[in-house]
Amino acid sequence: MFHVRVDRMEAVMAEPAFGARCSAALADRGPLCVGIDPHDESLRAWGLNTDISGVEYFCMTLVDALAGQVAVMKPQSAFFERFGSAGTAVLEKVVTRARSAGTLVLLDAKRGDIGSTMQAYAQAYLDPISPLAVDAVTATPFLGVGSLRPMFEAADAHGAGVFVLALTSNPEGNAVQRARRKDGRTVAQSIIDEVGNLNASRRPLGSLGVVVGATVGACRSQAVPVERQKTYGITHTTGSVGEAAHDLSRLAGPILVPGMGTQGGKPADLKRVLGEATDLAIPSYSREIARHGPSVDRLRAVARTLAEQCGEALRP
Amino acid sequence: MFHVRVDRMEAVMAEPAFGARCSAALADRGPLCVGIDPHDESLRAWGLNTDISGVEYFCMTLVDALAGQVAVMKPQSAFFERFGSAGTAVLEKVVTRARSAGTLVLLDAKRGDIGSTMQAYAQAYLDPISPLAVDAVTATPFLGVGSLRPMFEAADAHGAGVFVLALTSNPEGNAVQRARRKDGRTVAQSIIDEVGNLNASRRPLGSLGVVVGATVGACRSQAVPVERQKTYGITHTTGSVGEAAHDLSRLAGPILVPGMGTQGGKPADLKRVLGEATDLAIPSYSREIARHGPSVDRLRAVARTLAEQCGEALRP
Fold first, then answer.
1. Do the chains contact at B110 and A115, CB–CB below 8 Å?
2. ipTM of this model?
3. Closest CA relative to residue B312, chosen from B250, B267, B254
4. Residues of B with CB below 8 A from A125's CB?
5. pTM
6. How far is CA A106 from CA A54, A137, B170, in A?
7. Local confidence pLDDT in tens for the 316 residues of chain B
8. Contact status, residue B98 vs residue B66, Cβ threshold 8 Å
9. Does B215 contact A at CB distance below 8 Å?
10. Among A83, A88, A237, beta carbon nearest to B84
11. What residues in A contact B121, CB-CB < 8 Å?
């Protein structure tokens, strides 16, 4: 598993770490990630068939318009998986074309498992010889941040990155993410801290990041009353919504901020959510950009505007 | 999302719910799930190349030997994903052949997301028209059990099942799964309870299940000292290891128990872990079975033996 051929080793040594590549791309092109979410509604809005040919046209249009223009593109694996191997084949093309054009590809796959299975996911998405090799991938820590170690090791070996889910915007997430450990920290904070510890030896800038939703109010310490919610037929008390301030200041790694644009997040939310951890913020927009397509000019214009607005909002 | 064509509706009415199909299969063939985990070590043990042709031979041998003989087969998606679209194409064949032979296929994919993305995962794995449609899929509730709703609705519509991760055997999982909500319950217990509530209207038997590792000691109430562990360079106190008894008695749905065999779980662990919730236990073995291949006779013999041993251990 750890045997690497010398030629591979040289390639690895030559590839800068993801943290450095990501930082350079954000500084150069502005803090923006463009989500590639080929769901039926977006395909229909462009007048496309809701089949694999529609998916391919939608994605390739976005890639050809924006790869090389924006820092990061983020395909959402689920929308490809629904077409089986044909969908995966299109995802391979999307990833390859976007990377060739010089944009970092962050695959939103939210994988998480243990042992040899986690190792297989690492191989699938971070090993350069895989047909689906990307620059970085999202991972889910329900089995503990430690269970993701094979992914972290592969990232380290291949100059790639991993973004670990920490705090999401959806209210149902609180039941897990804001539960408390014995030491008083929330699950989300302990995840942020563990990822920060893994980045510690790479300060000022590691390659392991976290995912924090744009509308979570993560760094507010203002108390919000605990609400009782009726969700999907289950009445439950949401843990400690809004009570906990989450501290991202010792992360020393990139922060993906999804939920921007049509999902409700605004540039002005970024500092509120991220506090002082604004250096490596990656605000991610999907429909807000796609709805301006398929016109290449309009796609480029909206991406430029959003990158500028986010850059302005994140200025120290 | 809730519009279902009449012809589809009729097809749905004709297909019994997963809970009923699963119960019948377990009663008929014994409580056993055979994991299909084509990792390199297992391929080498059979003298196969560690490439996609080796994966296909390995999986098809297991399917041809055991589908129709055992209640459930569980391919692990990660081992196919590492070969990109070629791997997904083999997974499609494995799923189709195993289902045709009359074995229930539970895809271990551990997907979890929100909104339209979760809907796309539901479509990918539970919609009968998908090339990867299976009988049931595993799901990860880091974004809350409620976030999985599109998957539950698809299961309901198509007579399929969903197994939600609750309590895993790996020690790193405790930091999340045994954290406490405001109401004092662990995250794991709240997941079990939410799934149980969703099954409530389908008593005695719902189609939504949970995943509980064979070596967690879930139903012991015996106190185990909190340990300090050094994991991957991070020293942390594991939440409340072993302190919490987890109650599966109101689940009214199937329980997947991975980690049997070479991973350490024994038939005698089942009652300890599951308490009285033994009706719908699905102990899952992978390497313990595969290591007897590629001989079809030996594969069938070991599967028969393990199904008998588990059936014996689970007898009330």
1. no
2. 0.90
3. B267
4. 81
5. 0.90
6. 22, 5, 28
7. 344 444 444 444 557 999 999 999 999 999 999 999 999 999 999 999 999 999 999 999 999 999 999 999 999 999 999 999 999 999 999 999 999 999 999 999 999 999 999 999 999 999 999 999 999 999 999 999 999 999 999 999 999 999 999 999 899 999 999 999 999 999 999 999 999 999 998 877 899 999 999 988 544 333 333 333 333 333 333 333 344 578 999 999 999 999 999 889 999 999 988 888 788 899 999 999 999 999 999 999 999 999 999 999 999 8
8. no
9. no
10. A88
11. 78, 81-82
The answer to whether residue A96 neighbours chain B at the CB level (below 8 Å) is no
Using the structure block, give the residue that is written with the tokens 């539950």: B152
Give a three-class secondary structure readout of chain B. Answer: CCCCCHHHHHHHHHCCCHHHHHHHHHHHHCCCEEEECCCHHHHHHCCCCCCHHHHHHHHHHHHHHHECCECEEEEEHHHHHCCHHHHHHHHHHHHHHHHHCCCEEEEEEEECCCHHHHHHHHHHHHCCCCCCCCCEEEECCCCCHHHHHHHHHHHHHHCCEEEEEEECCCHHHHHHHCCECCCCCEHHHHHHHHHHHHHHHHCCCCCEEEEECCCCCCCCCCCCCCCEEEECCEEEECCCCCCCCCCCCCCCCCEEEEEEHHHCECHHHHHHHHCCCCCCEEEEECHHHHCCCCCHHHHHHHHHHHHHHHHHHHCC
| Residue B182 at interface with chain A, using a CB cutoff of 8 Å | yes
- CB-CB neighbors (< 8 A) of B259 in chain A: none
Substitution target from A143, A226, A241 for chain B, most B beta carbons within 10 A? A143
* Best to test chain A binding among B176, B186, B227 (most A CBs inside 10 Å): B176
Q: Structure tokens of B43? A: 């391929």
